[in-house]
Amino acid sequence: MKNMIFDGKDFAQEKERELKRKVDELRRKGVVPKLVSILADDSKESALYVSLKAKFSQRIGVIFDIHQFTVGTKTREIVTDIQKANANSLVHGIMIQLPVENQGEILPAISPTKDVDCLTEENLGLIVIGRPRFLPATVNAVMEIIKYALGHLGHMFEEEKWLKGKTVCIVGASIIVGKPLAMVLSDLGATVIICRSTTGRLSEFTQKADVLISATGAIDLVKKEMVKEGAIVIDVGISKLLRDGKFRVVGDVSKNVLEKTSFLTPVPGGVGPVTVACLFENLLLASQVFDPVKQGTFRRT
Fold first, then answer.
1. pTM across the whole model
2. Does residue 42 carry a pLDDT above 80?
3. Residue 81 known to be catalytic
């Protein structure tokens, strides 16, 4: 199969149906998963991202509680709100809609057991040692998409180390995507190359990749000549581009890359919808680490 364009919306809808089924089961046991979203940014983009998650939560039957703060709100006030959510046994997940001022003080306030976005030091550290409590939603989405691509392209792989023998190049070394993704894919058997803004001769590294992942937000960074013939290309970058007087969402990967790939994720409609679904999978995982009889008793090892 050549030049396959991934349908992230369809993939996410399948996950959504499964999530709704699991939420219904939890509700019958007396557990209603609840996610608190902290919004302290007045940008239209942040409002849009939060609204997409709110709509998803309604469709699967979980509670999505938005705690909105005006720009300039004192950090102490936001931290106090997070601490209250930490102590509330009916709240299973807490996330911060980034960007937020003073995130170095705000993110550590989240209880690691409710950190469904996997941004706390403890949860990131657990990834490093190969014992993740949660995976960042985008990391999990990319991992699932790669496995899906390999399966549909007819690749044979072992279940445990299913990336054995594959070379993966990640462009972008953020703590949200690039760094944890590199750890996870390495643990799955891949040889991982990670590139950043200081990497010289970028194409020398990208051309070696069986799987190329770009997560920079740099428009058209990845061009056809930078891609290995038949590579799987995952575009995680999201940018706004003004064309014909209208803003359009675009990714890191140029359209002509499709000519050389076996599998490509588009922007929009690729990684994004799957990421939202993976976030709520983390919420359901968090909601099950509490004993429904003794609310608040952590029982995950």
1. 0.92
2. yes
3. no
